[in-house]
């Protein structure tokens, strides 16, 4: 039987070919796709998340682990869809209007996907209306990233647009990025703030009341 502990280790160590191979073996053996996701991939990403929080891992290690996760997910995603495994929530993530920084946003997206969330990645320089459309398409978390003090007001604009378009109460809004603070989140009535990618996963779970 394919070894889920070995799969988790392959993610932690960023061994993309191993992660893909073990995932393929597990699928071929008829293992439940949800078990492969939770006991192998997510288990590995959870360790990566806590190592990142504890400064045992830095951005390069997380990116390498996330790449391994991504390769394994490419194999697993169609099986998950056909086996009806429910995503934990649907997160629409983007870097706000006027801002082109995406390294941190991509890390947050990959960690969230690793934790079992469905991700709609809207990219960079995302106008408020695109987030409104994402909520109409079923996103229940809006995740906004900004790296410039000059683009932080676009987070406020996005929240105001969600309100004026009548969809603010259909999704929780979380924000983050180097210049962003909990105080700013409070000031613009965001539902949550996370300082880094691992904490973003905890915050999304907290907002959706997932244990
Ligand atoms: Co720019 N840049 N940049 N830049 N850039 C900064 C942000 C800056 C601090 C550099 C500096 O002056 N010291 C400065 C901002 C100053 C300020 O506003 N206070 C700056 C500037 C000024 C600019 C330009 C205006 C420069 C110019 O053209 N004159 C320009 C703006 C372009 C634009 O966006 N319109 C610009 C351009 C660029 C590049 C294109 C060259 C490139 C971006 C490439 C890319 O992203 N694809 C770039 C880069 C790389 C940086 C630095 C060097 C690194 C940013 C980064 O990727 N960090 C940055 C200086 C620095 O931070 N040391 C700088 C690594 C990343 C993993 O961290 O993004 O913070 P971070 O994400 C973290 C957390 O913040 C958090 O989790 C992540 C992982 O832990 N997080 C979230 C992020 N989003 C989150 C969302 C969440 C929760 C957590 O919930 C939704």
Fold and architecture overview:
With 211 residues, the chain is of the alpha/beta class. It folds into 2 domains: 4-82, Orthogonal Bundle (Methyltransferase, Methionine Synthase (B12-binding Domains), Chain A, domain 1); 90-207, Rossmann fold, CATH 3.40.50. 56% of the residues lie in helices and 10% in strands. It is built from 9 helices and 5 strands, in the order ααααβαβαβαβαβα. It has helices at residues 4-12, 16-28, 33-53, 59-83, 103-114, 128-136, 153-164, 182-187, 197-207; strands at residues 90-95, 118-121, 141-145, 172-176, 192-193. A 5-stranded parallel sheet has the order 2-1-3-4-5, sandwiched between helices. The protein is globular, with a radius of gyration of 17 Å. It starts with a helix and ends with a helix. It binds CO-5-methoxybenzimidazolylcobamide. Residues 59, 98-105, 107-108, 143-145, 147-150, 174-179, 194, 196-197, 200 line the site of CO-5-methoxybenzimidazolylcobamide (B1M).
Topology diagram in text:
Layout (H helix, E strand, L loop, with lengths): L3 H9 L3 H13 L4 H21 L5 H25 L6 E6 L7 H12 L3 E4 L6 H9 L4 E5 L7 H12 L7 E5 L5 H6 L4 E2 L3 H11 L4
Parallel strand pairs: 1-2, 1-3, 3-4, 4-5
Bound molecules: CO-5-methoxybenzimidazolylcobamide.
CO-5-methoxybenzimidazolylcobamide binds next to helix 5, strand 3, strand 4 and helix 9.
Main traits of this protein?
single chain, about 210 residues, alpha/beta, Methyltransferase, Methionine Synthase (B12-binding Domains), Chain A, domain 1, Rossmann fold, 2 domains, five-stranded parallel sheet, 9 helices, 5 strands, about 55% helix, about 10% strand, globular, binds CO-5-methoxybenzimidazolylcobamide
């Amino acid at each position: 039987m394919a070894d889920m502990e070995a799969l988790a280790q392959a993610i932690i160590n960023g061994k993309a070919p191993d992660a893909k191979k073990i995932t393929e073996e597990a699928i071929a053996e008829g293992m439940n796709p949800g078990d492969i996701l939770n006991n192998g991939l997510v288990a590995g990403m959870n360790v990566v998340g806590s190592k990142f929080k504890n400064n045992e891992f830095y951005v390069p290690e997380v990116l390498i682990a996330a790449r391994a996760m991504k390769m394994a997910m490419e194999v697993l995603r169609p099986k998950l869809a056909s086996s009806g495994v429910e995503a934990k929530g649907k997160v629409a993530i983007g870097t706000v209007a006027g801002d082109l920084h995406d390294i941190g946003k991509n890390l947050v997206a990959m960690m969230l996907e690793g934790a079992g969330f469905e991700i709609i990645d809207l990219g960079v320089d995302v106008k408020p209306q695109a987030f409104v459309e994402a909520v109409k398409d079923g996103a229940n978390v809006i995740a906004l990233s900004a790296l410039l003090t000059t683009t932080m007001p676009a987070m406020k604009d996005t929240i105001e647009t969600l309100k004026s378009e009548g969809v603010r109460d259909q999704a929780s809004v979380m924000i983050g990025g180097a210049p962003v603070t909990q105080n700013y989140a409070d000031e613009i009535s965001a539902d949550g703030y996370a300082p880094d990618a691992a904490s973003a996963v905890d915050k999304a779970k907290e907002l959706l009341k997932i244990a």
